[in-house]
């Protein structure tokens, strides 16, 4: 078991199975030292635990947990692509899209659910750049979608 | 004629002229083995065939075709930058922004119009990572905007 | 003083202090010849000069100035990461998120505030690819958020 997965385990978390590959694109792709995930939704066993806009149907605290769930799916996709998450040398970038009610401006707090989990499992190598934006609506009415880019060796 | 353009031709498609360069930025940029396009709109001969939000003024099937049109513009921009599309060794990433009515959640279906065309013209090398999000509104009220990143040699 | 900062000074502009580092992520990150910023807001001395959606509470001309302010913050973040902005050999990519009223379609004009400033301070090396999209709402109700990717040596 990789160190990264060990740390997840100590937090009571595990990697979900990777979402079934879709014909038209792939969950993650490694090229020349950099690996990127497709947009990840907060699936739990293939289902979204809740849907809707943050600040309306979904509150900020729940959305923050969903951001962490989406990171778990991103890590699972990266593991499937890289073979071992311990090959990750640095988390470079996280882009967090938050489906937002027009008056919800707490996207950074939601995105912290992703950033803090990455910091906990990767330590200093988990310190990344980040953009968090509030979008109109996401696929399947998910509250959060995010993509992760890492350096690997 | 490149193999990529030959395949497009067999599908009855051709590369449009590249949108006139704007002073402030460029349509595509190659650097160190990776080339990225600017956000591409579904222009046909310099015009948007329709405008508005998907799920309201524009339906999902039409938006899917527009995603394919935007890919053609992206390929034209990449050809202008790289000289020959056969230099592309892998499509790495596609980000699809869909101007969406608040209750439209079919962004992946729209984005498939882009992903499938890339798969058809590049084969295995066209398998990419992808994010699809629903945004409030796009430049010129376009229904779809997308950017494409490729590896080249 | 670097040439880039000298040019800013001739335009009457200076680099702001970098926003205090947040525990969960970093303002900018350099890796293997490419440096990226986190999403930058148009802070002036730690405050947003105005908030709201462009096309509603904020007009397009003001938003264009805010895009330039956000670029200054991006340059400050890159300087803190790289030590010297003259290490930048090319601006590769700018992504501009404009918090937009649903009928505001002038995102490119807003984004020009960012692109033109980069062109003025970096010259030919400031010619970049760009995406500009209209999103529902941004952190702290900022009118504009943008991220910048550069090549450096």
Your description of this structure?
- The structure is a homotrimer of 153-residue chains.
- Chain A is of the alpha+beta class.
- Chain A has one domain: RutC-like (60s Ribosomal Protein L30, Chain: A).
- Chain A contains three helices and five strands, in the order H-E-E-H-E-H-E-E.
- Chain A has a five-stranded mixed beta sheet, covered by helices on one side.
- In chain A, strand 1 and strand 2 form a beta hairpin.
- In chain A, helix 2 crosses helix 3.
- The longest helix of chain A is centred in the middle third of the chain and has 23 residues.
- Chains A and B meet through strand 1 and strand 3 of A and strand 3, helix 3 and strand 4 of B.
Q: H/E series of chain A, N to C?
A: HEEHEHEE
Q: Based on Cα principal axes, name the global outline of chain A.
A: globular
CATH H-tier superfamily of chain A: RutC-like
Please indicate the percent range of residues of chain A in DSSP E strands (runs of 2 or more). Answer: 15-25%
Low-confidence stretches of chain A: none
> Which sheet architecture does the biggest sheet of chain A show?
5 strands, mixed
| Strand element count of chain A | 5
Structure class of chain A: alpha+beta
Separate helix tally of chain A:
3
Domain module tally of chain A:
1
Mean pLDDT of chain A: 94
As a whole number of angstroms, the C-alpha radius of gyration of chain A is 14 Å
CATH architecture of chain A: 2-Layer Sandwich
Strand ordering within the main sheet of chain A:
1-2-5-3-4
Determine the N-to-C terminus distance of chain A.
Answer: 18 Å
Helix content of chain A: 25-40%
Assembly annotation:
homotrimer
- What's the CATH class label of chain A? Alpha Beta
